[in-house]
Amino acid sequence: MSWTKKILRVNLTNGEVAEEPLNMDWAAQYIGQRGLGTRYLVEETDPTCDALGADNKLIFATGPLTGTAVSTGGRYSVICKSPLTGAVACSNSGGFFGAELKSAGWDMIIFEGKAGSPVRLHIENEKAEIIPADDLWGKTVWETDKLIHAAVQDPQVRVAAVGRSAEAGCLYSAIINDLHRAAGRSGVGTVMASKNLKAVSVRGTRGVGNIKDPVRFMKSVAEQKQVLAENAVTGQGLPALGTQVLMNVINEVGALPTHNMRDVQFEGANNISGEAMLEARESDGKPNLTTNAACFGCTIACGRISTIDKGHFTVENKPEYWGNSGGLEYEAAWALGAATGVDDLDTLTYANFVCNEDGMDPISFGATVGAAMDLFDLGAITTEDTGGMDLSFGSSEALAWCVEKVAAGEGFGKEIGMGSKKLCEKYGHPGLSMSVKGQEFPAYDPRGIQGMGLTYATSNRGACHLRSYTVASEILGIPEKTDPLETEGKAGLVKAFQDATAAVDSMGLCVFTTFAWSLDNMAPQMDAACDGEWTVERLVEAGERVWNLERDYNMKAGLTGADDNLPARLLKEAAKTGPAEGKVCGLDEMLPEYYSLRGWTPDGQVTRETRQKFSLPA
Amino acid sequence: MDAGRPGDPGNQAEILVAGMKHVIVGAGPAGVVAAETLRKLDPEAEIAMIGDEPEPPYSRMAIPYLLSDHIDEAGTYLRKQPGHFVHHSIEVVADTVASVDTRDKQLWLTGGGAVSYDRLLVATGSVPILPPVSGIDHEKVTNCWTLEDARKISRGCAPGASVVLIGAGFIGCIILEALVSAGVKLTVIEMGNRMVPRMLDETCGALLERWCGEKGVNVMTNAQVEAIEDAGGPVKVRISGGREVNAELVISAAGVRANAKFLEGSGVELSDGAVVVDRHMCSSVPGIYAAGDVACGRDFSTGEYSVQAIQPTAVEHGRVAAHNMANHGSVTHPGSVLMNILDTIGLISSSYGQWQGVEGGDTATLVDEEAFRYIQLQFDGDRLVGANTLGLTQHVGVIRGLVQGRFRLGRWKDRLMKNPLLVMEAYLAVSQG
Amino acid sequence: MLRSLSIDAEKCTGCLQCEMACSYENEGVFNPAKSRIKVFTFHDEGRFVPYTCTQCDEAWCLHACPVEAIVMNKATGAMEVADSVCVGCKVCTIACPFGTVNYNQDTGKVIKCDLCGGDPKCAEACPTDAIVYVDADATGLDKMRAWAAKTDNAASARG
């Protein structure tokens, strides 16, 4: 153990729900969650399938450490083919849903087919039931959560749901659990809605047990919690300021993408920073941030719980937004703020609330609004297209209007909901989409942090910071400082981070632990908990196997090495200010070495030797 | 507000007299707690406890678990330590009190002896009522009240045997599980329009009835036993509406009444057969106290005096009475919250305070009939005054906390009206605020 | 010197490490549903409140038990449930006005905090010192007692 060794298979087409044993040979190779879920996807689906068709599958997967006392051990991932990128989608979420699912006795749920009309799934320990959900269709995530709680009559039930945006086909819709934690990226929510699956609710009271060596495990868990507590980032920075601790830091190093990446520094950065969230408002004397909050089992507690000024134009006379809810994290604050040039904290918090309320990825949403503003600035989009709304950079009104329109899937919101790639193609400037493989970048400019350029270009799910967070090394000096403006050595750095992160994501842990932990800190916990011997080497190997499996899926889905690219703006337009002034991203200096380190061909195909080395499926 | 209540000595202070003799009639929870409390307060006092059953003091609450073989007879004993009462110098006398001479402060025992007292506590509990039906004295009919009754029931519950249970009140319901698991064919006959009508509202009682039905129990409500006839082997139980059931065993659980007949004519005031007490648990006769099911004590919610016949109240009575016996007037009983929790073949129901609601008050309800879950809250203004629950087991005690704390709920009232399950959250919010 | 759990809700982040530590110590599984300490979330207020038995002087549960299954551990001051004696009648669960004694349908017994015999695992696991195990006369306990007293308006009747 500590897998439950049970999968719940839900056929939405014929309404059948069945239990089956977990493939433990695969678990030994792919660990769990991200790796194991992907293994099942590879086995059971055609990579060329229509992501929004009945042939795609939707997999909710926990890790072997999910639901245990290991710090941050409460996570789950949603795996499917992405409608946004056409590549593999794997979105990781915290909150409490994953641990509850594990506690109900399930390692994984595999949804297949498509329901004829809206349904939801309710799980109570070993009992799982498909329930008609016509009454929930058209409801927000927040309404859905409330209605399911009312129906189930158990305050402890945990709900993961999609909002109206997903129903309307927004391509970056998220699955939101526990009201404001998200399996956020790559449109996993869109896939869920395409199956007419509105929500999954779960109550688990069986618990997670069967720890291999309980005494060693509890000792190791306590020691490693101490390591997190004593680390400056995980013990102080993240609890106090959340990931928003980064806003001013990244702005200062000249890597804060601004105005759809026209600029690398944002003059309003301080207004939307973690520090600003602590400042008392004039109206009621309260700061934006009420408290920090933890996901299940997490001893870091970087989560933000915030309020919006009740008098702010976005929430005037809308008391449903006056209470506390999930506040701004760095990526969201950047996308909603710097990417669009909006520096009003309340507007950003409101847009963030709505992204949670109706299930949108705030990164892709904000970045797409940034692209729309760029197009508007160029005159490619006009008020005629928007129905009158002025989409100028920096407009709070425009941001609030966009988020409401995308949430409801109305009017111009439908176009913003396509993502920046399709939007920019439609309006004749495909180069203005700041995306890779169709997925928008997050909050680090590769001109100022070179390793992130390679990270974005090679990420298996399209542009993403969470596949190899080299910011840790290049900016924060973790585990050792590298020069963010230098490309040399970054290929190896990116590969090492990618493999380690794949292992972290497969165990059930949060990648934020890696500010303090390396696999050296995780392996002893994994080994004490789980069947088999789990060394650092084995975890690295498993991580690399997962990476190659994902790559292989993408190649089979029709992607090529040519998709490992960045928009011309980053490769040709130099940074205008800050430490990176004059720099572009040197992707071509890093990519060939990266392919070679990966054991891939010069055009990025997984070689037969590499396939054999990791025993990848044919 | 106690002025004029029977037996209240007003401000007349009494000093504790060393070597005082306390006699307690009844060896149930009220009696035992009173005896122990007295011992703690007065190490010198002479304490005697008279019980009319041969067993060591035991709990009737535990009998259902004895019937279902969860425990043995020793598991029902109120005190587990051998020699507990001897160790605390509490003399346990096995006898029955025939009458009380309040003038000479003396008890007459049916065994022939007499016992004198300085302070007397009547804690004789209640006795079962047998419905006035012909044949009720048949040997195949038994109460479910004493350990001896339990032994008889156990013997009569062979798998497949037909058993009739008269009364679906608290006692009837709580033994259902034992009867069902013994594999008997069970028929329950209840006069009221629902199960446990004195504890649960109509929705709750009806859900419970359906639950029992699904467990294979034949429950007849609005039904009365008209006669029990000897038919050679099993008895024939005639039920209103022309129905009849043959039964190898008939269990009567038709209700109880206060066990205070021996006080008739003693000068101790009775009301509906129960001892009238003031807020010091003192009866109309100074020096004579009453506690537990035999006492018509103060109800916390209504301020009225009534018999609650529940374990926590018996214990509260016993402690208050003991304090006042040791040092008269030292402790005032604020009233006990009427509450009950019942496990009927695994379905748990509970009631608190004024669960029937109060005039002008509000009611919040939430029901999931399929899952056998129900909660009903009663408010007076923004205070919680009562509740019924079904299928809930977690944190239910806070309902008592909210009722007894008389907390003003403020905006939590509205939240509870919308979702009554938030009682714990409401409690934390208002009690910590 | 008796020690007691002191809870400061202001410091709680809602991580449930306490619930896991408690359930693991007592049930052998990580299972918040079986924890004797519970963290209550007030979403709109952005507040997390850990809550468990205060081992109150009134010991309502102990007195309400008909079969003496709840006894005080003199070394720790904790009211402990003796599993072998508890018949599962649940009277203590309604008697405790703090709602901290709960029925476990799987075992047919009640469960409540027993301070882990003097080494409470919840306090040990809490990453923010929201739960600490301190001398009983520390201020935190006074606060809890004061809170308990608000509910206990029958305290005047208790010796």
What's the main sheet of chain C like?
A: 2 strands, antiparallel
Summed up, the helix count of chain C is: 5
Terminal-residue CA separation of chain C: 22 Å
C-alpha Rg of chain A, in Å? 22 Å
Low-confidence stretches of chain C: 150-159
Cα shape of chain C:
globular
Give the number of DSSP strands of chain A.
Answer: 17
Relative helix content of chain C: 10-25%
Which topology of the largest domain in chain A does CATH recognise? Aldehyde Ferredoxin Oxidoreductase,  A, domain 1
The largest interface is:
B-C, 57 and 40 residues
Rg of chain C: 15 Å
Mean residue pLDDT of chain A: 97
Q: What structural class do the secondary elements of chain C suggest?
A: alpha+beta
User: What is the correct CATH architecture of the largest domain in chain A?
Assistant: 4-Layer Sandwich
Number of domains of chain C: 1
Q: How many DSSP-defined strands of chain C? A: 8
Please name the CATH architecture of chain C: 2-Layer Sandwich
Profile the largest sheet of chain A: 6 strands, mixed
Oligomeric state as shown: heterotrimer
Any idea of the CATH class of chain C?
Answer: Alpha Beta
